[in-house]
Amino acid sequence: KAGVTQTPRYLIKTRGQQVTLSCSPISGHRSVSWYQQTPGQGLQFLFEYFSETQRNKGNFPGRFSGRQFSNSRSEMNVSTLELGDSALYLCASSSPPGRGLNSYNEQFFGPGTRLTVL
Amino acid sequence: GESVGLHLPTLSVQEGDNSIINCAYSNSASDYFIWYKQESGKGPQFIIDIRSNMDKRQGQRVTVLLNKTVKHLSLQIAATQPGDSAVYFCAEIPFGGNQFYFGTGTSLTVIP
Fold first, then answer.
1. How many angstroms separate the first and last alpha carbons of chain A?
2. Is A90 on the interface with B (CB under 8 A)?
3. Given a cut of 60, is residue A88 above it in pLDDT?
4. Which of A36, A78, A87, B84 has its CA 20 to 30 A from that of A23?
């Protein structure tokens, strides 16, 4: 079974530009979550999509947005880029609940997109 | 908001020794905990999990201990190997929650 894939793997942008990142979840997974990872802050939750609807949102400004398509693929967009947006952006897809030890969705992470804002 | 943090951002151990990575959490309603391993250039990978009604759980060479009294979580790696070198994160989710909260990570370096 193929894992979570993210494209592109690396991206360099300048301040003020906008960027779109893509995530393809594991086949059969309907939930996709996005995280921002920086050395100082660790993994910060951005948002989660399930069946094309944003189900949960973290504490990020409105410049960060996302969407999910009918095939569960997801995109996130960052507009008006700032230097502080430089980070590794991780996507995670979730298996159906009720598996494993608990009723929480186990998350499988992609390799991330490394965004550098100059 | 939630606060999940790790003691000792870096840890170096000799190959073959045991490693202990610690994590503190602030939410007493935390119900489920996961340890992730992140190697360079890769996303986090699930290692082991534990629920709040458990004190200990063992996997292959790894053990997670949960102390709810002091809100502390630890990951023990037995006979550490060079391939264990990575950043380790703890994550927690409160009871009934749908969002994971991650610690900042501890970088483990195994010295051959």
1. 37
2. yes
3. yes
4. B84
